[in-house]
Amino acid sequence: MLERLRAPWSDRRAERVLGALASLVLLVIALMIVFVAVKAWPTLRNNHLIGWLGFGGDVDAQISDQVNGVGRGGDQFAINAGPLIYATVLTTAVAVVVGLAFALFSAIFIVEFAPPRLRRVIVPVVRLLAAVPSVIYGLIGILVLAPFVNDHLLPDGRKRSVEYVVQLSGTSLLVATLVLTVMITPIMIAIITDALYSVPKSWTEGAVALGVNRWRATWTVSVRAARPAIIAAAVLATARALGEGIMLSMVSGGRGFSPNPLDGLSFLFEPLRPLAATIVENVESLNAPAIRSSVYAFALLLLLSSFALSVGGYIAKQPMKKYGIRV
Amino acid sequence: MNPVRRLGVGAVAVAVLGTAVPATASAAPVITMSGSTSVAPLASLLAKGYLKDRRLKGKLKFKLAQGGSDVGVADVAAGRVSIGNSSRDPKDSDSGVVFNKIAKDAICLITNPANRLPNLTQNQIKSIFSGDVRNWEDVPGSTVSGPIDLTVRTAASGTQDAFQKIFLGPTKLSPIASAKSSNGLVQQTVKGNKNAIGYVSQDFTSGVNAPAYAGVSCNLANAKSGQYGGVRSFYMVTRGAARGGTKKFISWVQGSKVAQKIIATHWVPLR
Lengths: 327, 271
Hints:
The complex is a heterodimer of chains A (327) and B (271). Chain A has 327 residues and is mostly helical. Chain A has helices spanning 2-6, 11-53, 59-67, 82-113, 116-130, 134-153, 156-161, 173-197, 201-209, 214-225, 227-243, 246-251, 275-282, 289-317. In chain A, α5 crosses α8. Chain B has helices at 3-25, 40-53, 69-77, 122-129, 158-168, 183-191, 220-225, 244-255, 257-264; strands spanning 30-35, 61-64, 83-86, 97-111, 119-120, 149-153, 178-180, 196-201, 212-213, 231-239. In chain B, the strands form two sheets. An eight-stranded mixed β-sheet of chain B has the order 2-1-3-10-4-8-6-7, sandwiched between helices. In chain B, β1, α2 (40-53) and β2 form a beta-alpha-beta unit. Chain B is elongated, with a radius of gyration of 23 Å.
């Protein structure tokens, strides 16, 4: 047995073993989706899909009833996850849009304009930031940012104006999206920087030879060529933001509220709680069948979203590949 | 060594390790525990004390995992552990398990240090946490002004369950309260917000102001003497009545003087 393993492998054997490992990954993913879907089925069936995705009642009260096993039969599953889904979409979308703009311009600066000595410092630091565990960002959010926002940006008058409807505080939409943006930007910078580096020098040199300046050559040639990588960066960052639970549970305000943009500036200070954070906060109560099913349903939605995101990113990249670099 | 051969040797090494580990672990009987994060520090001390007191070192082993009261109850009901630790009372949905009371723990109300609120009556607590009173100006004794920021625990928490039962009774908690997932987060939030009020296990009161409840201040001495009303129970939960080594351990925890002494360091012993 040992002798056989030690002997040099034939290509055929290596292909079979590695192929089996690769298909195992596919099998695990497929089984995972099926498992989560089966577990999520009771809550989805009892609320009908539209009701489950929609708004209605207080989602925190519904979760609390599920944890305590209030109601019998189909009633115990009652939940309208709308506010949680809205919170997930809102935080993710704002963080990715702001982060992407920031990352693109930072990457252009690093690749095209930064003096070499600065570049030697910035690139490793960005990679380091991309690897910082999210819970550390969460700690900074709860220990530094949230108290600062609460003490200096949020006057008592504003809190008082809505005190019977919602509690405004530092742990809010503003701090949640800010920390989330800071968390996902470095990884986008790292990917876009690599992509801009891999654009052949001759392409931009050609543009410069035709008389445009460096900024215009970068913007019209390098960035255009790197579009597939920019989309890949956005997809990766979105997936990370969607799945972020611990950090958002710490800084988002712990309340299944739907911040309303019509509230003016108060909008920024309203609490919310995305899906992943809700999962984190309810793992303790998986004993109760209703909340267990709901938590699996949240997980299923996140799983399908990231799946759709990958496929969407792949499709969006196709037409750009013609003149783009390979990523 | 070429890469493919290295892969083969690696696979063999993993296989050898995999068979070796279970072989060494099965030497002594093991009592496994999981559950409440509030009970875990106590359970760990009790396990150590038991081994020392009964001279069982090497003859018995303890394994302690955490995860929350409901995890402990679910684990023990499914037979995954010998003991589930719980800081909440039994619920209707718990079937086939026995709750063995082992100790008590005080729940303190906490406010920001800037708010040197001396005392809260039960009615005041009810009106604050139900959302009827929303401003610190309306709470006598408060040294801050502005809206009250309610900080509570998530529905899954044993502390939340106990607070509802002991302090609020039938009164419903205000839906606008901000829910945190651990004692530490509540403590930190209250520390960082001058308008906040929350409640935590008595272990988590450093750096914040703990007002008295119904005239009795929240500390270990008052909880032990029975004067302080905000006290809940800690349980070790077993599947059916405890048997064998688990039974011996739990009756040691409930009965022996050594165990009572260990509990009395930070918690309230039963006798």
